[in-house]
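Morning!

As promised:
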Amino acid sequence: MQTVGFIGLGKMGAPMALNLLKAGFAVQVFDRLSDLADPIVRAGATNHNNAHSASVNADIMISMLPASEHVESLYLGATGLLQHLTPGTLIIDCSTIAPASARRLHDAADGLGLAALDAPVSGGTTGAQAGTLTFIVGGLATNLQRARPVLNAMGKNIFHAGDAGAGQTAKIANNMMLGIMMVGTAEALSLGVANGLDPKVLSEIMTLSSGQNWALDHKNPWPGLNTNMPAANGYQGGFSVDHMLKDLGLAALTALQSGRATPMGELARNLFALHAQQGHGDLDLSSIIKLIDKKNSG
Ligand code: NAD
């Protein structure tokens, strides 16, 4: 049985770790908020009070952290986790971070005889719970081959995007599109309802017409239409506005570094920034309708 060290038990990490346990892996967990480990420990994992302890005897380390700075401070530097890992250990970072940060992790791991993959995910909290995530992987194909059993335990689709950092570049492009689609979906619903349409009927029409998209189908922002969506639950849980804003910022930075114009992505970034400034950073991204539609702004 392989042992997996798992760092970061937030909205995504906790259900992913549970799926590893279900698939028969031994799982050693750590989150700086120790209470988050409770349900995973009840399912059979061991809890640790630091990342180093969670990595002892681990064949594979997985991290699911908020942003680049968390990943870099976990692994890199004189006191970073890489210094404690046994050569040959495979590191799979599933957080969404800057491609340049991912490449720094790959390079440092290489230098110490460790193997690394950037493997950000798509599919949201429901995909994490159901074990149907999409993994978008950057790094060596041989490392991906080693990672497949753990990735298969947490997801359904695995894409090899390219070399080190390529997983992050693909994920950032995808999330820029998601941010744009969410704003567009909120705007279209608001327009229709303000002109007398029932939001449920309009959603059904768009779902089967050319406006159909993932934000509409899986995160319809109009409150109360589907009990499984964050909009029916005060926009709690899901994918936070702060994380969306981070990803749109990564897209803007990547565009700047590569001389590309991303006008729609920049507009979406500014709208999400305004929404976060108004105190909504913790809510699911579908709450952007509060900014777009006055009726939903309460
Ligand atoms: P989250 O904020 O719910 O969880 C992050 C966890 O990391 C927290 O529990 C925090 O305490 C922990 N943490 C931070 N620094 C740590 C450290 N140094 N050591 C140990 N634990 C630490 O975030 P999330 O929604 O689970 O997202 C995680 C990542 O996945 C982000 O990069 C996000 O962009 C990406 N993502 C999220 C979703 C989603 O729907 N939530 C979907 C796809 C990708």
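The chain has two domains: 3-164, 169-296.

Hope this helps with the figure draft.
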